[in-house]
Specification:
alpha+beta, 6-stranded antiparallel β-barrel, 3 helices, 36% helix
Length: 313
Protein backbone atom coordinates (compact mmCIF):
# COMPACT_ATOMS: atom_id res chain seq x y z
CA UNK A 1 0.00 0.00 0.00
CA UNK A 2 2.82 2.31 0.88
CA UNK A 3 4.48 1.57 -2.39
CA UNK A 4 1.25 2.57 -4.21
CA UNK A 5 1.01 5.82 -2.31
CA UNK A 6 4.60 6.65 -3.08
CA UNK A 7 3.97 6.01 -6.76
CA UNK A 8 0.85 8.25 -6.71
CA UNK A 9 2.77 10.96 -4.95
CA UNK A 10 5.61 10.69 -7.37
CA UNK A 11 3.40 10.70 -10.46
CA UNK A 12 0.53 12.81 -9.04
CA UNK A 13 0.27 15.10 -12.06
CA UNK A 14 -0.07 12.18 -14.43
CA UNK A 15 -2.49 10.52 -12.03
CA UNK A 16 -4.69 13.65 -11.78
CA UNK A 17 -4.66 14.14 -15.54
CA UNK A 18 -5.49 10.48 -16.16
CA UNK A 19 -8.30 10.56 -13.60
CA UNK A 20 -9.74 13.72 -15.14
CA UNK A 21 -9.66 12.27 -18.62
CA UNK A 22 -11.32 9.08 -17.46
CA UNK A 23 -14.06 10.98 -15.66
CA UNK A 24 -14.60 13.17 -18.69
CA UNK A 25 -14.83 10.13 -20.91
CA UNK A 26 -17.28 8.50 -18.55
CA UNK A 27 -19.45 11.64 -18.38
CA UNK A 28 -19.45 11.96 -22.15
CA UNK A 29 -20.39 8.31 -22.48
CA UNK A 30 -23.19 8.67 -19.96
CA UNK A 31 -24.41 11.85 -21.63
CA UNK A 32 -24.62 10.09 -24.99
CA UNK A 33 -26.47 7.12 -23.55
CA UNK A 34 -28.55 8.95 -20.90
CA UNK A 35 -28.55 12.58 -22.01
CA UNK A 36 -31.59 13.81 -20.06
CA UNK A 37 -30.70 12.29 -16.71
CA UNK A 38 -27.07 13.38 -16.80
CA UNK A 39 -27.95 16.91 -17.82
CA UNK A 40 -30.59 17.16 -15.13
CA UNK A 41 -28.20 15.81 -12.51
CA UNK A 42 -25.46 18.15 -13.63
CA UNK A 43 -27.77 21.14 -13.53
CA UNK A 44 -28.98 20.26 -10.08
CA UNK A 45 -25.43 19.95 -8.81
CA UNK A 46 -24.44 23.26 -10.37
CA UNK A 47 -27.56 25.04 -9.12
CA UNK A 48 -27.11 23.65 -5.63
CA UNK A 49 -23.51 24.77 -5.61
CA UNK A 50 -23.92 28.18 -7.20
CA UNK A 51 -27.40 29.26 -6.04
CA UNK A 52 -26.29 30.59 -2.61
CA UNK A 53 -23.75 32.85 -4.26
CA UNK A 54 -26.33 33.97 -6.83
CA UNK A 55 -28.85 34.77 -4.09
CA UNK A 56 -26.26 36.64 -2.04
CA UNK A 57 -25.21 38.62 -5.10
CA UNK A 58 -28.85 39.44 -5.96
CA UNK A 59 -29.60 40.57 -2.40
CA UNK A 60 -26.46 42.69 -2.34
CA UNK A 61 -27.27 44.30 -5.68
CA UNK A 62 -30.86 44.97 -4.62
CA UNK A 63 -29.71 46.50 -1.33
CA UNK A 64 -27.13 48.72 -2.99
CA UNK A 65 -29.65 49.72 -5.65
CA UNK A 66 -32.26 50.56 -3.00
CA UNK A 67 -29.79 52.60 -0.96
CA UNK A 68 -28.70 54.54 -4.02
CA UNK A 69 -32.29 55.16 -5.06
CA UNK A 70 -33.15 56.35 -1.53
CA UNK A 71 -30.08 58.59 -1.56
CA UNK A 72 -31.07 60.09 -4.90
CA UNK A 73 -34.65 60.59 -3.70
CA UNK A 74 -33.40 62.13 -0.45
CA UNK A 75 -31.19 64.54 -2.35
CA UNK A 76 -34.16 65.50 -4.48
CA UNK A 77 -36.33 66.01 -1.39
CA UNK A 78 -33.63 68.10 0.26
CA UNK A 79 -33.37 70.35 -2.78
CA UNK A 80 -37.15 70.63 -2.95
CA UNK A 81 -37.29 71.38 0.76
CA UNK A 82 -34.67 74.12 0.38
CA UNK A 83 -36.65 75.59 -2.49
CA UNK A 84 -39.85 75.56 -0.42
CA UNK A 85 -38.03 77.15 2.51
CA UNK A 86 -36.73 79.94 0.27
CA UNK A 87 -40.21 80.49 -1.14
CA UNK A 88 -41.70 80.50 2.36
CA UNK A 89 -39.14 83.06 3.53
CA UNK A 90 -39.90 85.23 0.49
CA UNK A 91 -43.64 85.04 1.14
CA UNK A 92 -43.10 85.83 4.83
CA UNK A 93 -41.08 88.92 3.94
CA UNK A 94 -43.85 90.02 1.58
CA UNK A 95 -46.46 89.47 4.30
CA UNK A 96 -44.36 91.45 6.79
CA UNK A 97 -44.00 94.27 4.26
CA UNK A 98 -47.74 94.30 3.59
CA UNK A 99 -48.51 94.32 7.32
CA UNK A 100 -46.08 97.19 7.85
CA UNK A 101 -47.65 99.09 4.94
CA UNK A 102 -51.11 98.47 6.39
CA UNK A 103 -50.05 99.81 9.81
CA UNK A 104 -48.40 102.82 8.19
CA UNK A 105 -51.56 103.46 6.17
CA UNK A 106 -53.63 103.40 9.37
CA UNK A 107 -51.31 105.90 11.06
CA UNK A 108 -51.29 108.19 8.03
CA UNK A 109 -55.09 107.97 7.78
CA UNK A 110 -55.34 109.09 11.41
CA UNK A 111 -53.04 112.04 10.69
CA UNK A 112 -55.02 112.89 7.55
CA UNK A 113 -58.29 112.75 9.46
CA UNK A 114 -56.84 115.12 12.05
CA UNK A 115 -55.70 117.53 9.33
CA UNK A 116 -59.07 117.41 7.60
CA UNK A 117 -60.94 118.03 10.86
CA UNK A 118 -59.00 121.22 11.49
CA UNK A 119 -58.53 124.40 9.50
CA UNK A 120 -55.06 124.72 10.99
CA UNK A 121 -52.10 124.10 8.70
CA UNK A 122 -50.07 121.00 9.55
CA UNK A 123 -46.87 119.55 8.16
CA UNK A 124 -46.45 115.78 8.32
CA UNK A 125 -43.02 114.56 9.44
CA UNK A 126 -41.37 111.20 10.08
CA UNK A 127 -39.37 110.35 13.19
CA UNK A 128 -35.84 109.52 12.03
CA UNK A 129 -34.00 109.51 15.37
CA UNK A 130 -34.43 109.34 19.12
CA UNK A 131 -32.30 110.44 22.05
CA UNK A 132 -30.47 107.40 23.42
CA UNK A 133 -29.82 108.91 26.87
CA UNK A 134 -32.15 109.40 29.81
CA UNK A 135 -31.17 113.04 30.43
CA UNK A 136 -32.93 114.68 27.50
CA UNK A 137 -36.02 113.19 25.87
CA UNK A 138 -36.05 114.34 22.27
CA UNK A 139 -36.77 113.01 18.80
CA UNK A 140 -35.44 114.01 15.39
CA UNK A 141 -37.75 114.71 12.44
CA UNK A 142 -37.06 114.68 8.71
CA UNK A 143 -38.42 118.21 8.18
CA UNK A 144 -36.48 121.43 8.54
CA UNK A 145 -36.39 125.12 7.78
CA UNK A 146 -36.61 124.44 4.04
CA UNK A 147 -40.20 123.27 4.64
CA UNK A 148 -40.97 126.23 6.94
CA UNK A 149 -40.32 124.60 10.31
CA UNK A 150 -39.43 127.05 13.09
CA UNK A 151 -38.53 126.85 16.76
CA UNK A 152 -41.31 126.52 19.34
CA UNK A 153 -43.82 125.09 16.88
CA UNK A 154 -46.09 122.51 18.57
CA UNK A 155 -45.76 118.89 17.49
CA UNK A 156 -48.82 116.66 17.75
CA UNK A 157 -50.05 113.13 17.15
CA UNK A 158 -53.65 112.00 16.60
CA UNK A 159 -54.02 111.29 20.34
CA UNK A 160 -52.62 114.56 21.61
CA UNK A 161 -49.54 116.64 22.36
CA UNK A 162 -46.03 115.34 21.62
CA UNK A 163 -43.82 118.35 22.34
CA UNK A 164 -42.32 121.37 20.63
CA UNK A 165 -39.55 122.10 18.13
CA UNK A 166 -36.37 123.29 19.88
CA UNK A 167 -33.73 123.10 17.13
CA UNK A 168 -34.01 123.45 13.36
CA UNK A 169 -31.64 122.70 10.50
CA UNK A 170 -32.44 123.05 6.79
CA UNK A 171 -33.47 119.39 6.55
CA UNK A 172 -34.29 118.27 10.09
CA UNK A 173 -35.76 119.41 13.39
CA UNK A 174 -35.28 118.32 17.00
CA UNK A 175 -38.39 118.03 19.13
CA UNK A 176 -38.42 118.27 22.91
CA UNK A 177 -40.93 115.74 24.18
CA UNK A 178 -43.61 116.42 26.73
CA UNK A 179 -41.81 114.14 29.22
CA UNK A 180 -38.46 115.97 29.04
CA UNK A 181 -37.48 117.14 32.55
CA UNK A 182 -36.69 120.68 31.33
CA UNK A 183 -39.96 120.98 29.44
CA UNK A 184 -42.92 122.95 30.80
CA UNK A 185 -46.45 123.19 29.39
CA UNK A 186 -49.40 125.05 30.80
CA UNK A 187 -52.00 122.42 31.72
CA UNK A 188 -55.73 122.60 32.42
CA UNK A 189 -57.78 120.03 34.33
CA UNK A 190 -60.65 119.60 31.91
CA UNK A 191 -63.30 118.75 34.51
CA UNK A 192 -62.67 121.50 37.04
CA UNK A 193 -60.76 124.06 34.90
CA UNK A 194 -57.89 124.13 37.41
CA UNK A 195 -54.54 125.10 35.88
CA UNK A 196 -51.05 123.82 36.57
CA UNK A 197 -47.66 123.25 34.93
CA UNK A 198 -46.95 119.97 33.19
CA UNK A 199 -43.28 118.95 33.17
CA UNK A 200 -41.34 115.75 32.62
CA UNK A 201 -39.61 113.44 35.07
CA UNK A 202 -36.13 111.98 35.04
CA UNK A 203 -37.90 108.62 34.96
CA UNK A 204 -41.02 107.83 33.00
CA UNK A 205 -44.15 109.93 32.64
CA UNK A 206 -44.79 113.54 33.63
CA UNK A 207 -46.04 115.59 36.57
CA UNK A 208 -48.63 118.32 36.92
CA UNK A 209 -47.14 120.83 39.35
CA UNK A 210 -48.36 123.99 41.12
CA UNK A 211 -51.96 122.86 41.44
CA UNK A 212 -53.84 124.82 44.15
CA UNK A 213 -53.76 122.86 47.42
CA UNK A 214 -57.55 122.74 47.79
CA UNK A 215 -58.28 122.17 44.08
CA UNK A 216 -60.55 119.29 43.11
CA UNK A 217 -58.19 116.89 41.32
CA UNK A 218 -58.84 113.15 41.18
CA UNK A 219 -57.38 110.15 39.42
CA UNK A 220 -58.75 109.87 35.90
CA UNK A 221 -59.08 113.61 35.24
CA UNK A 222 -58.13 114.59 31.70
CA UNK A 223 -55.52 117.32 31.24
CA UNK A 224 -55.35 119.58 28.16
CA UNK A 225 -53.19 122.54 27.25
CA UNK A 226 -54.23 125.77 28.90
CA UNK A 227 -53.00 128.08 26.13
CA UNK A 228 -50.86 130.07 28.56
CA UNK A 229 -47.48 131.18 27.20
CA UNK A 230 -48.47 131.46 23.56
CA UNK A 231 -46.65 128.31 22.39
CA UNK A 232 -49.33 125.63 22.65
CA UNK A 233 -52.90 126.42 21.64
CA UNK A 234 -55.56 125.73 24.20
CA UNK A 235 -57.35 122.40 24.31
CA UNK A 236 -54.75 119.94 23.02
CA UNK A 237 -55.01 116.66 25.00
CA UNK A 238 -51.95 116.11 27.20
CA UNK A 239 -52.84 113.07 29.28
CA UNK A 240 -54.66 111.57 32.25
CA UNK A 241 -54.09 111.95 36.01
CA UNK A 242 -52.89 108.65 37.52
CA UNK A 243 -52.07 109.74 41.08
CA UNK A 244 -52.51 112.82 43.29
CA UNK A 245 -49.85 113.90 45.82
CA UNK A 246 -51.03 116.19 48.64
CA UNK A 247 -48.12 116.72 51.02
CA UNK A 248 -48.69 118.10 54.49
CA UNK A 249 -47.50 121.71 54.81
CA UNK A 250 -46.99 122.15 51.06
CA UNK A 251 -48.32 125.23 49.29
CA UNK A 252 -49.36 123.26 46.21
CA UNK A 253 -50.36 119.75 45.30
CA UNK A 254 -48.95 117.68 42.45
CA UNK A 255 -50.25 114.86 40.29
CA UNK A 256 -48.70 112.13 38.17
CA UNK A 257 -49.68 112.23 34.52
CA UNK A 258 -49.82 109.52 31.87
CA UNK A 259 -49.29 111.00 28.42
CA UNK A 260 -52.15 110.66 25.95
CA UNK A 261 -49.59 109.74 23.29
CA UNK A 262 -47.35 106.68 23.47
CA UNK A 263 -44.13 108.63 22.97
CA UNK A 264 -42.00 105.48 22.76
CA UNK A 265 -43.76 104.31 19.58
CA UNK A 266 -43.89 107.51 17.53
CA UNK A 267 -43.22 107.10 13.81
CA UNK A 268 -45.09 110.01 12.20
CA UNK A 269 -46.18 113.32 13.71
CA UNK A 270 -47.76 116.61 12.69
CA UNK A 271 -46.08 119.98 13.09
CA UNK A 272 -48.57 122.79 13.69
CA UNK A 273 -47.50 125.46 11.20
CA UNK A 274 -50.25 128.09 11.44
CA UNK A 275 -53.60 128.40 13.18
CA UNK A 276 -56.38 130.24 11.36
CA UNK A 277 -59.11 131.52 13.62
CA UNK A 278 -62.39 132.77 12.31
CA UNK A 279 -63.80 134.89 15.09
CA UNK A 280 -66.44 136.57 12.94
CA UNK A 281 -68.21 133.31 12.05
CA UNK A 282 -68.47 132.13 15.66
CA UNK A 283 -67.15 128.72 14.67
CA UNK A 284 -63.77 127.21 15.41
CA UNK A 285 -61.29 124.70 14.28
CA UNK A 286 -61.38 121.47 16.30
CA UNK A 287 -58.85 118.79 17.04
CA UNK A 288 -58.85 115.74 19.25
CA UNK A 289 -61.68 114.19 21.21
CA UNK A 290 -64.28 116.90 21.01
CA UNK A 291 -65.27 120.26 19.60
CA UNK A 292 -65.14 123.73 21.06
CA UNK A 293 -68.13 124.77 23.10
CA UNK A 294 -67.41 128.45 22.77
CA UNK A 295 -66.38 130.85 20.04
CA UNK A 296 -62.82 130.86 18.83
CA UNK A 297 -60.44 128.16 17.67
CA UNK A 298 -59.96 124.92 19.61
CA UNK A 299 -57.38 122.19 19.16
CA UNK A 300 -58.84 119.60 21.44
CA UNK A 301 -61.53 118.58 23.86
CA UNK A 302 -61.36 121.77 25.91
CA UNK A 303 -62.94 125.19 25.59
CA UNK A 304 -62.23 127.71 22.81
CA UNK A 305 -59.34 130.13 22.72
CA UNK A 306 -58.17 133.11 20.79
CA UNK A 307 -55.13 132.33 18.66
CA UNK A 308 -51.88 133.13 20.46
CA UNK A 309 -53.49 133.83 23.85
CA UNK A 310 -54.95 131.93 26.76
CA UNK A 311 -58.01 134.17 27.12
CA UNK A 312 -61.55 133.07 26.56
CA UNK A 313 -63.23 135.12 23.87
Amino acid sequence: MSVLLRLLARYRRATILTTTLVLSFLLMTLQVRHETAVVSFTRQVLLFTVSPFIKLTAVTVQGVTGIWRDYVDLRGLQEENKGLQRETATQKRRIDQLEEQALETQRLQALLAMRQASRAEFLTARVIGKDATNWFKTILLDRGSLEGVRRNQPVLAPDGLVGRVVEVTPTSAKVQLLTDPVNAVGGLIQRTRVTGIVSGNLGAGARVRYLPLMADVVVGDQVVTSGMGGVFPKGIPIGRITAVDRRSGALFQEASLQSAVDLSRLEEVLILMTLEANASSGAGTTFGAGASREAGTSLGAGAGFEAGTGRRP
